[in-house]
Amino acid sequence: MSRTRSIVIKGGTIVAADRSYEADVLIEGETIAAIGENLTGDSVLDASGAYVMPGGIDPHTHLEMPFMGTTAAETWESGTFAALSGGTTMVVDFVIPDSENLIGALDAWEARASRQASADYSFHMCVTGWSEPIFEAMEAVVARGVNSFKHFMAYKGALMVDDDQMFASFQRCAALGALPLVHAENGDIVAALQQKYLNEGIRGPEAHAYSRPPEVEGEAVNRAIMIADAAGVPVYIVHVSCEPAHEAIRRARQKGMRVYGEPLVQHLTLDEAVYQHPDWDHAAQRVMSPPFRDKRHQDSLWAGLSAGSLQVVATDHCAFSTAQKRMGLSDFTRIPNGTGGLEDRLPVLWTSGVETGRLTPNEFVAVTSTNIARILNLYPRKGAIQPGADADIVVLDPKAGKTIRASTQKSIIDYNVFEGVEVRGLPRFTLSRGEVVYCAGRNEAPRPGRGRFIPRPAFAPAHRALSTWKALVAPRAVSRDPARMPIGV
Ligand code: URP
Ligand code: ZN
Ligand code: ZN
Ligand code: ZN
């Protein structure tokens, strides 16, 4: 009789979002079977001197996304291998329909992912307009295990939705138990500022940053939060880059609103000065929306992570080659927007966050894995080291280091926005559903197509709690004694 082979991770310190402790982890098949002392199994992974953590979840990627007249060059195959080599075991990618056919777009994304992905994945669906067919299709999307819908308040004339469309979609999300996500920048003002700088002859990547100031983001975050509150639904703000955006989220949370904020590892560590770089390619390679900001804004984001007003660190991995970036050589508005980071998120955040004392190791696990698993209703299947959970595990060696180089990365992009940055906190092993898919020093890629779609049920606990509260405090008609009513004319 055949028996599932087991693996024991021995001698490490388990770091969960709530505590750290020394124990072995026994894995049988795809899941964690036991945690304890002196466990035995068919094979042993040595975790001495290392931290055993839930694999990273990156809830914001755009692999092979058609965008701005081209397609993001990072494929599902290269992107998920890059992710695993950096300790990220699951990505959540954005499906962008080019019509009202949301299910057709979901099928197209699923076809690409299922053939190529070596890490597990899930999807968010983008709502880029509003109509009866979209209203109907949202229910079918939720039935397919996609419980989050993204809205762009920017990219006027392309993906942008306006307030009434967003309000309608948010109300639909409330009814379906789905979470609305928002790219918050005031798209009308961005479009006007872009035109202004083009008219003034400022056509280089520096104008990308000039046309998207922090206030434009802060205004949109406030508006998105107000619309979500009116619709009675939680809301998740993607790529929060600055203090005005963080301030809006902080204030809403203090009022008891269910608002989540996601800074990117790039916005935490990279400075707006990159757009002034004399080398056009260098500056254009860093063009993304919102743009990188100055230190004051970076400090605000770090403070938000330690205070709990911001919950998740993502990458928005949307990687274009230098040749693609040059589509905007004579006009910054044509530079494809997006940067990479999937491979580097954990080591960069460990080095700049934990090693500096801005984050505890437990907070690191919370913001790279556990919090988003809870928000997206994946917990504890993902985001947890506990019996019954998927064995998605990173054994992180805090002493192992490297200098980030495009020339040695797994990503197929020809540059890296973190080029030259020295990091520590590298994976010694990465496991995905019980399989060792990456091992330090070994470079072979796991089998493309081994990654699985992970469905996410609707009605996460915070969604239920908010619906209950909103029903309780909903405006009601006053019942009046008909006998005492004035006579109408
Ligand atoms: O510049 C960015 N962020 N590109 C990816 C698409 C998006 O806005 O998230
Ligand atoms: Zn409208
Ligand atoms: Zn965005
Ligand atoms: Zn994005």
TrEMBL record:
GO terms for molecular function: dihydropyrimidinase activity. Gene3D superfamilies: Metal-dependent hydrolases (3.20.20.140), Urease, subunit C, domain 1 (2.30.40.10). Signal peptide: none annotated. Pfam families: Amidohydro_1 (PF01979). Keywords: Hydrolase, Metal-binding. Residues 51-433 form the Amidohydrolase-related domain. Its cofactor is Zn(2+). Its EC number is 3.5.2.2. The keyword Mitochondrion does not apply. PANTHER family: COLLAPSIN RESPONSE MEDIATOR PROTEIN, HYDRANTOINASE/DIHYDROPYRIMIDINASE FAMILY MEMBER. Belongs to the metallo-dependent hydrolases superfamily. Hydantoinase/dihydropyrimidinase family. This is Dihydropyrimidinase. It comes from Ancylobacter amanitiformis.
